[in-house]
């Protein structure tokens, strides 16, 4: 039940949002709805924001926990995402509307891997290079005129509350393709951007296995959903299997 101050504030927010939409339509530009809400709460349309509203503004879209007791890992994911079965991963979730935004977990074979720590991969920078090479291998194309641009944005390590070391790797990959790959003259083969994505990986080791949480998201969507996606990354845990 909302107290009277909260109710009044929500009414002010609703009014401000309607005013913004009217102005938005008049000026002929578009701003994502989440960005509009952020502007409203930040004080762009409401001069006085109390502590209740500030806390409300920072809330996530909502995360749900997934626990795999058989393979030994857990993570949180946006509650509106759906699980896709049959994907080439141990588990796979995706946004039902933005199909290029998804999450998966992959793990090495327990019979062929003998990892003791994620540091067996080397320092985070070396792990980042391996992660990027793996992505580029998976995205190899036999189409004529396809070109990929890639870069490692960041690599880091952290000790989580379970005492384990995790590596985090962020890379960007852009794909370009010629609009007419069979054209004879170079000027007739114009490269266009097909997609621009950010890939976020969290690596952990337990049970002699390497676990990797993978997040894929279009760059323009990442800007808007970074807070939630980083919460997902921070939630990833690997767990000791009990024989």
Features:
globular, 5 helices, 3-stranded antiparallel β-sheet, 7-stranded antiparallel β-sheet, 243 residues, alpha+beta, disordered N terminus, 10 strands
Overall shape? globular
N-to-C SSE string, H for helix and E for strand: HHHEEEEEHEEEEHE
Question: N-to-C terminal Cα separation, in Å?
Answer: 47 Å
Low-confidence spans: pLDDT under 50, at least 5 residues?
1-7, 19-59
What proportion of the residues is helical, as a percent range? 25-40%
Q: Tally the helices.
A: 5
What's the overall average pLDDT, rounded?
80
Arrangement of strands in the largest sheet: 3-4-5-9-8-7-6
Structural class: alpha+beta
β-strand number: 10
Largest sheet: 7 strands, antiparallel
What fraction of the residues are assigned to beta strands by DSSP? 25-35%
Cα Rg: 22 Å
Pfam family, one: PsbP
InterPro entries: Mog1/PsbP_a/b/a-sand, PsbP_C
GO cellular component, one term: photosystem II oxygen evolving complex
GO molecular function, one term: calcium ion binding
């Amino acid at each position: 039940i909302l107290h009277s101050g909260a109710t009044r504030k929500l009414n002010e927010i609703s009014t401000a949002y309607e005013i913004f939409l009217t102005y938005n339509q008049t000026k002929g530009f578009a701003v994502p709805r989440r960005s509009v809400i952020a502007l409203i709460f930040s004080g762009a349309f409401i001069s006085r924001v109390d502590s209740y509203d500030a806390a409300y503004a920072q809330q996530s879209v909502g995360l749900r926990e997934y626990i795999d007791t058989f393979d030994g890992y857990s993570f949180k994911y946006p509650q509106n995402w759906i699980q896709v079965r049959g994907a080439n991963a141990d588990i796979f979730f995706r946004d039902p509307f933005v199909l290029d935004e998804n999450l998966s977990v992959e793990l090495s074979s327990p019979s062929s891997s003998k990892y003791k720590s994620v540091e067996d991969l080397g320092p985070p920078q070396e792990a980042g290079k391996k992660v990027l090479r793996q992505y580029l291998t998976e995205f190899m194309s036999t189409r004529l005129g396809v070109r990929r641009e890639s870069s490692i944005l960041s690599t880091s390590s952290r000790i989580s509350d379970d005492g384990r070391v995790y590596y985090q790797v962020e890379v960007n990959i852009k794909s370009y393709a010629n609009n007419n790959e069979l054209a004879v003259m170079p000027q007739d083969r114009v490269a266009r951007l097909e997609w621009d994505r950010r890939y976020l990986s969290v690596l952990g080791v337990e049970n002699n296995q390497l676990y990797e949480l993978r997040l894929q998201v279009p760059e323009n969507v990442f800007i808007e959903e970074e807070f939630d996606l980083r919460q997902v990354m921070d939630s990833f845990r690997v767990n000791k299997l009990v024989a």
